[in-house]
Specification:
It is a single chain. With 129 residues, the protein is mostly helical. The protein has seven helices and no strands.
Length: 129
């Protein structure tokens, strides 16, 4: 994901959150922490999780929060969790190419379990030379 996307998303999410929710307070604080998840992943993951559990987000906002939390997991090196969150985003919007691209990048950088899955795919699904 590009830094530009994160910046644009941050602005859109803050505007959407503030417009949709009369009570700013803690919700606004959590939204800000979620938006900073790539620079402070632990706080961002906690805040994004809070937002997802709040029941206050529209479907498109949920999609973006899953992507942000996925990036935060990847920053921490927790690629399995990043892949899971990107999978949730893809389930919400199967046409989201950005989510597919990020999930693919996290698979490439992933854990040994993902490496095993990739190697099984490679052995089974690539033509012999």
């Amino acid at each position: 994901m590009s830094a530009r996307f994160i910046q644009l998303f941050a602005v859109a999410l803050v505007v959407a959150v503030l417009a949709a929710n009369a009570q700013a307070g803690e919700f606004e604080d959590q939204a800000e922490h979620c938006l900073s998840s790539s620079t402070n992943p632990d706080l961002g993951i906690e805040a994004c999780s809070w937002l997802l559990n709040s029941g206050r987000l529209a479907e498109k906002e949920i999609l973006f929060v899953y992507k942000l939390r996925g990036v935060a997991h990847a920053v921490k090196g927790d690629f399995d969790l990043a892949i899971r969150d990107l999978g949730q985003a893809i389930a919400l919007d199967p046409g989201d190419a950005e989510a597919y691209n990020a999930r693919g990048a996290f698979y490439r950088k992933g854990t040994s379990k993902n490496a095993f899955a990739r190697s099984r795919w490679h052995c089974c699904c690539t033509p012999a030379s």
